[in-house]
Amino acid sequence: MKKNSFLFFFILMMISTKIYTQQKEINWITFEQLEDSLNMKPKKVFLSFYADWCAYCKKMDRVAFKNAEVINILNSEYYSIKMDVQSKDTILFGGKTYLNKEVRTSRRPKHEIPLLLASRKNEPFSLPANLILDKNFTIRKRFFEYLSPKKMVSILK
């Protein structure tokens, strides 16, 4: 009887520890942090470009980016960056300076980084834009649509 009680208690502890240690949100980092991180420990990179006015971007925040499996994969296998395409920040990355040159000329200005990484030939810029890059910061996949948790998991694996 003592063995069964001990075994039950041990299993209960393991389950509660797993639930407690499971991460609840994505560890988003900045481009500046990414450069240092890639130099220290190369990993794949997940980039998510969004805007406050993008309904599907907001839905991904509420659904896909709250999914436990998506969170676990992104936090363990990727460096993740989420960037507002309308950001006015000056970003230093790879020895270059990137900014939003459209701030004074456009109603919906787009920063240089999303324009460089998420533009498509002969297509208007659209959101959401999610990219997967390899350890060498080479684009491997680009998605210009809402990604459900199920689809996110399939593309991240």
* Rg, Cα atoms, Å: 19 Å
Let me know the average pLDDT.
Answer: 90
Task: Please give the largest β-sheet.
Answer: 5 strands, mixed
Strand content: 15-25%
- The low-confidence runs, each spanning 5 or more residues with pLDDT under 50, are 6-10, 16-21
Count of discrete alpha- or pi-helical segments spanning 4 or more residues = 6
For this entry, what is the oligomeric state of its chains?
single chain
- Strands side by side in the biggest sheet: 1-3-2-6-7
The H-and-E topology, N to C, reads as: HEHEHHEEEHEEH
Could you say which structural class the secondary elements and strand pairing correspond to? alpha/beta
Topology, number of strands: 7
The gross shape turns out to be globular
Topology:
Elements: H1 2-21, E1 28-29, H2 31-40, E2 44-50, H3 55-62, H4 68-77, E3 78-84, E4 91-93, E5 96-98, H5 112-118, E6 129-133, E7 139-143, H6 149-156
Parallel strand pairs: 1-3, 2-3
Antiparallel strand pairs: 2-6, 4-5, 6-7
